[in-house]
Amino acid sequence: MILENKTIIVSGVGPGLGRECAAIALRDGANVVLGARNAERLAEIAKELDPSGKRVAHCSVDIVDPARCDAVVGTAVDRFGGLDGLVQVAALDTMFGGVMDASVDDWHKTLTTNVVGSANLVKAAAPALEARGGGSIVLIGSQSMYSPQVMQIAYASSKGALMSAMYYMAKELGPKKIRVNTVVPTWMWGPPVIGYVNSQADALGVPVEQIVAGITANMALGEIPADEDIAECAAFLLSNRARMITGQSILVNAGEWMR
Fold it and tell me: Rounded CA gap, 145 and 247, in Å?
């Protein structure tokens, strides 16, 4: 139980990665505060994860709004007495296009959410983490910032900017014993990718297995990492086993892209 007696906030909790991060943190002994914009869905997920309600709380949060970031941190402190870690999953990833067709509005919305929003949540969490003697912040990157996959220039650029911000956060917050790291996934086998694969198979009139084979062609392990594989890495970085790891990025990509 590597997270026993810790309290963790997970933002961006929906049917995919955020939910898996919360579920694995619970499995590993943590109290978990779920955050996302959809309050009704949060309540449903909280009940699914912990029907007793003893170890899960939830708070509606839009990371673009600093007041809502303060609110989710306040929920952790009020309900469980403090905060030990944050997994910042919330992101805007629905803007598609390259430099010639991504609109100015696409760029602004994506960078504001994924970079400024992440900074808002880190800023809100840092005092509560410091009050506990330190803690761990886990950001979620994207391999697309290194190697283009689907054409999403604004999204990929925002994740690259977030990586740069991570280095500064780690340097600034390190004296407070707050660690900041990034998990960098490739394709993640969860609801969004499953939907994409199915839609591509339908559009091209080919079996789903053919689309999956195309995605995994360059993966040394020959398998698309699942949402829970990324969540397992996040749980490690939240734990004391990673107490001397900060300012680092870890690729979870089945060996698709090596550096």
Answer: 17
Band of pLDDT at residue 147, cut at 50, 70 and 90: confident
- CATH code, domain with 30: 3.40.50.720
Q: Are residues 217 and 232 in the same domain?
A: no
Nearest to 57 by CA among 66, 45, 65: 45
Distance CA 259, CA 221 (A): 16
- Same domain membership, residue 112 and residue 100: yes
Q: Kindly state whether residues 92 and 211 are assigned to the same domain.
A: no
Same domain, 30 and 50: yes
Beta-carbon contacts of 32 under 8 Å, excluding residues fewer than 6 positions away, are 7, 8, 9, 10, 22, 25, 26, 49, 55, 56, 57
Strand partners, 35: 59
Tens digit of pLDDT for each residue in 164-219?
999 999 999 999 999 999 999 999 898 888 988 999 999 999 999 999 999 999 99
